[in-house]
Design the sequence.
């Protein structure tokens, strides 16, 4: 059996764990260590902190999932100040093996390994995920991640990385027209993750307040999410309802674009909404696709309940590349 470091790096958190691999299968995933990305100047410094907490020298094999496109040797995290380089990571950490993938590609790899019990049904037919065809993986966190899991039957599958969170947001009613008009003043172009992400709730909330003529609505993201989920602030609760509607519309758009036969929701924000999405405006907006409404209504939507799918998926990707 071999041990590797598996890491999942997003705009807010850097997560690490030790995974154990036996003949291409993940047989163990150690307790995760979660660090705040903003508290470290680089990935290498976060690695050092993880090693210090582990109390032992780390394995020299790493599978790294990051919230960024990873086609080039050097790249920046989409929602963080970190810049990373494959060559520098291998050199500075003295690695013998490195697998580097997009964070939602890692989630797609995790979905390939998670059984039906690890998925919560949200809408559509309550049945296991199909063993063939395309499954859309999407989920809000610091940004909005998206990937495709293409299954060929049995253990055969491929993962396609995307930057679907950066497609244009399409408003569907007059209120969303107003929200987009206000956000366009701030951002210029309004992508879907400007609304469907952790910070997206703040954007929606502030615009709703402005439309009501209120100027006392500055809230940090963590506080606003707590108020919205606990329903201790009426406008925050209204913003969350709109967030779920927008999330349903975007998930349905991606499913159509991907030709998907199922959708799986991941991301930290997705887990926080696990018991709200099914009763929110998400299902109706997901299926409301005009001539394709029947197709979307027949598409199962699940939510990952596993605590650390990014770490698991990064480990699965490593095991596939180095069986």
Sequence:
């Amino acid at each position: 059996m071999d041990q590797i470091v598996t890491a999942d790096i997003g705009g807010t958190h850097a997560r690490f764990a030790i995974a154990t691999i036996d003949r291409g299968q993940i047989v163990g995933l150690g307790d995760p260590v979660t660090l705040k990305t903003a508290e470290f100047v680089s990935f290498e410094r976060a690695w050092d902190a993880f090693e210090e907490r582990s109390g032992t020298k780390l394995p020299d094999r790493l599978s790294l999932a990051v919230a960024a496109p990873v086609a080039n040797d050097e790249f920046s995290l989409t929602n963080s100040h970190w810049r990373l380089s494959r060559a520098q990571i291998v050199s500075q950490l003295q690695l013998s093996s490195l697998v580097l993938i997009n964070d939602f590609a890692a989630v797609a790899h995790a979905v390939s390994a998670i059984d039906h019990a690890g998925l919560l049904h949200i809408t559509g037919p309550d049945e296991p995920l199909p063993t063939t065809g395309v499954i859309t993986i999407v989920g809000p966190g610091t940004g909005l991640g998206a990937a495709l899991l293409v299954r060929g039957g049995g253990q055969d599958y491929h993962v396609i990385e995307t930057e679907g969170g950066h497609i244009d947001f399409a408003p569907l009613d007059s209120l969303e027209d107003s929200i987009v008009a206000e956000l366009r003043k701030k951002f210029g172009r309004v992508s879907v993750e400007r609304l469907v992400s952790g910070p997206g709730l703040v954007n929606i909330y502030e615009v709703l307040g402005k439309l009501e003529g209120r100027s006392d609505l500055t809230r940090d993201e963590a506080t606003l999410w707590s108020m919205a989920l606990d329903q201790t602030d009426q406008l925050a609760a209204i913003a969350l309802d709109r967030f779920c509607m927008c999330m349903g519309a975007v998930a349905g758009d991606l499913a159509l674009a991907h030709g998907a036969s199922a959708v799986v929701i991941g991301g930290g924000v997705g887990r926080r909404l696990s018991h709200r999405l099914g009763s929110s405006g998400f299902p109706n907006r997901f299926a409301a696709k005009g001539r394709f409404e029947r197709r979307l209504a027949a598409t199962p939507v699940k939510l990952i309940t596993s605590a650390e799918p990014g770490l698991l998926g990064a480990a699965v990707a490593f095991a596939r590349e180095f069986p």
